[in-house]
Each structure stands twice: as C-alpha cells, then as structure tokens.
Amino acid sequence: MALKGYYTSTIGSFPLTDSEENRRRCLEDLIALGIDYPAYPQLTDMGKQFLDDLVKQDCGITLSMGEYRAARKNINVDVEPPGIEPFLWTVNYLEKKGLKAKIKAPVTGPFTLASYIVVGEERDLLNRAVADISLIEQIAEIISKSCKVISKKAEMISIDEPILSLIVGLRVIFNYGEEKIKGILNIIRESCGNVLTGVHICGKISRKLANILLETNLNFLSHEFHDTPTNIRVYSPEEVKRSGKILSVGCLSSKKPIVESVDEILRVIRKFKEFGDCIIFTPDCGFGNLIVDGSREKGYNIAIEKLRNMTLAVAKFRGN
Length: 320
What we know:
Elements: E1 5-8, H1 20-33, H2 46-56, E2 61-64, E3 67-70, H3 85-97, E4 104-108, H4 110-116, E5 117-118, H5 133-150, E6 156-160, H6 164-167, H7 177-191, E7 196-200, H8 207-214, E8 220-224, H9 237-243, E9 246-250, H10 262-270, E10 278-282, H11 296-319
Helix pairs in contact: 4-5, 5-7, 10-11
C-alpha cells in the first residue's frame, strides 16, 4: 500500500447529466489528460446514488416528494450493496475498450448519507438520521458492503463525508462524540481491504476534526485548500508525517467558473512541499455544480481546462 511521489486525481462529479455517452466522455477525457487516479464519472447526486438503491430494497428508508425518511428506528442492513453501478460500469467499459486507468472510487459516507434522511417533524440536522449514532452505524454496515465489492477492482477509495465539516467544530454538535466518529470511519476503512483509502471533506476543517482524522486508520485526508486556504493551518507537516497519512490537496476552485493558470495552481501546490514524499493533488471538490450561464456544457469545458492546468502544474512540481 506504500505510495510515494506526487499524483493527480479527481473528486468525482461533473455538471453533465447522467448518461452512458456522458460517462464515456468524462472517463476518456480524464484518461487523455493524464490524471493518475481518475474517479469514476459520478453524474448523479452523491446521496441519491446510494439512497435510491436502498429505497428500492425496502430496507426502512423511503422516498416521498423528494425527501428521504427513515420509516422505522432500525434499518434492515441485509441488502445488496448500494450505489456501485457507476463504478461497475466504469470497470466494464475500460475492460471492453482495453483501456488502462487506476480508478478511484468515491463512496458517499454514512454520516453524509444520514444527513439526507429525515426522522423528525422538522428538517434541520437535529431531526435527521445524522443525529442518531445507531442509524449511522447501520448505514455504515451497509456502505461497508459496497466498499468490499469496490475494493476488488479499485486502485483507490474515497469516503466522501462533507457533512463532517459542519458537525465537528470546536466540539461534536451531537452527543456521540469523537470516538464514535473514529470508530465508524475505521469500520469503513477495514471493509476496503488493501486498497488505498481516505476521506474527502470539503469546507473549513476545524482543529478537532483534523485531530480525529489523524487518529483514524485512513490512508489519505482530502480537503479543499484553494478556496479555503486557512485549512493548511490545521495540519503541520510533522504530525501528518508522524501519522503516516497522505495529504490530498485541493489546489483549484471547483466553484469559480474561471480557469486557474498553471502558475496560480503551482503557488498552492508549493505550500505543501514539506508535507512528505507523497501528496495527491485534486480540485477542491467535485464539479457537479459548475453550471455556467445555465449551461452544463460550458461548466464541463471549464472543468476540463482546470484539470489540464492542474496536470501541468503537478508536472512542473515533480520536475523541481
């Protein structure tokens, strides 16, 4: 599982609608750009991808008027692994076309999935499954099944947990505490076997959340650093090295419809030269919401140009 050097990857989403043609286009564009670990094309909402499969299996999660709900206190975990169809499509397409790529598999994590599910009368976080650790643990057991299947073919797995930057600030806003968070992340990590596995959390990272992540068994920690440059201050090079973690650095904006120059990206990248002999460089987050002037096509083309400049910037960094 040892990895050394400087690599490029993507987070997953693009602003195109989900179709076989758009999946093919995304995948082949990423390979043509020379992305080292391209994520499979994630062209549907990250929660919907997994939760819709669970709704169909009558596990206790329902969908009505666009709202997911827990129909009962206990979710049936005896289900088929959800959310894996886009990954399996990608693997099959590569094999059929004889293409080579080290695929990264985004998997929406149990905390974030739980934040989609309403359990009370109100719709704030306190009335969602993310406030109930027993429901999160049940979802984690289900997602572990997906990770076990994915780990047979993926080169890298990213557990996507954007909600954690909201629920872990100076303290954990719910009563289950940091040990439960570490435990659940470690359970997911274990289900991924020998595949390089990390967590992606965008937004502002608190010092408490950084400490929790450093103490997990995850291999890499992925955050946004371009649009949230203060995140660099929550980690020191020494503690990242001591933890054995790889830092995955968001070095360009996934929100702003402006193509960063190679030099601008390189300025962000160079801030991390002391963080070890292995760093992964990505956009801050997925490009799913990068719709420009109402056009998904314009957003997609800008995303590709951003990634092109990222690969050039990382190539320069390697050369130095």
